[in-house]
């Protein structure tokens, strides 16, 4: 949670509790077995050279377009903190000012916030993360809310783990439909729709991305590179893990 240091990959030890079990990551951060497989394959041909943090940065780039040059040389953290993850990872409920403040604290601009939120063009969310929005909020298209209500009942405990795509139009394709959805009040999460409400400070950015996919793509790449530069660990404070789940 202090930077791009692979801390999210660590399992529990006697001295720290893993980020994996933090509320924002629970049933959300997945695919750790894939990371294990990649690390094992890399270590066989390039022992002790490629950090787990660099692996995550590269796989994030390679999972979907667009493409960019990933800076390498990150070190892996020797600790992790569930408490820090609970405190620092934005939940799906903040208002716009809170979102901007959190990103600014990491050295990321408001435009970076909007561009990186566009990563929600792919992925899913649990019913518990959007139930309040689809039943209680007014800034939501009626038919969209009704569609989501079919698989996310109002009652807590009923369908809590049911999933819905963050982008209702093209949920497995990296494009700018996420922003078109926001303009049409079809943002799944409260924090998504906060980026566009008709009179907000980020409305013009969202509208621009909804009309110009190339602008979104280039800004997303620039923001990903900046995010990848957050608080790199110097050599003495980090390591290159042999196993991404535990420190050496």
TrEMBL record:
Ca(2+) 1 binds at residues 3, 5, 7, 19. One of its GO terms (biological process) is hydrogen peroxide catabolic process. Its cofactor is Ca(2+); heme b. Ca(2+) 2 binds at residues 121, 167, 170, 175. Substrate binds at residue 90. Disulfide bonds join 52-244, 127-152. Residues 1-248 form the Plant heme peroxidase family profile domain. Coiled coil: none annotated. SUPFAM superfamilies: Heme-dependent peroxidases. It is an enzyme of class 1 (oxidoreductase). Its EC number is 1.11.1.7. This is peroxidase.
């Amino acid at each position: 949670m202090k930077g791009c240091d692979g801390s999210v990959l660590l399992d529990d030890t006697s001295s720290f509790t893993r980020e994996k079990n933090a509320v924002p990551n629970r049933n959300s951060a997945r695919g750790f077995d894939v990371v294990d497989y990649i690390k094992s394959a890399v270590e066989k041909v390039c022992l002790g050279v490629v950090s787990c943090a660099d692996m995550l940065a590269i796989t994030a780039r390679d999972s979907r377009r667009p493409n960019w040059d990933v800076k390498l040389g990150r070190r892996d953290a020797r600790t992790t903190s569930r408490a820090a993850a609970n405190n620092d990872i934005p939940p799906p409920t903040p208002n716009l000012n809170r979102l901007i403040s959190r990103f600014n604290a990491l050295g990321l601009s408001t435009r970076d916030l909007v561009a990186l939120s566009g990563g929600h063009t792919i992925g899913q969310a649990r019913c518990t993360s959007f139930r309040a929005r689809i039943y209680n909020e007014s800034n939501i298209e009626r038919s969209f809310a009704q569609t989501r209500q079919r698989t996310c009942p109002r009652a807590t405990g009923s369908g809590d783990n049911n999933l819905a795509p963050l982008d209702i139009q093209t949920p497995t394709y990296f494009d700018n439909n996420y922003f078109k959805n926001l303009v049409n009040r079809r943002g799944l999460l409260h924090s998504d729709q906060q980026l566009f409400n008709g009179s907000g400070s980020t409305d013009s950015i969202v509208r621009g991305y909804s009309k110009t996919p190339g602008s979104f793509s280039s800004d997303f790449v620039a923001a990903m590179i900046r995010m990848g530069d957050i608080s790199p660990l110097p050599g003495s404070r980090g390591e290159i893990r042999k196993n991404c789940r535990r420190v050496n």
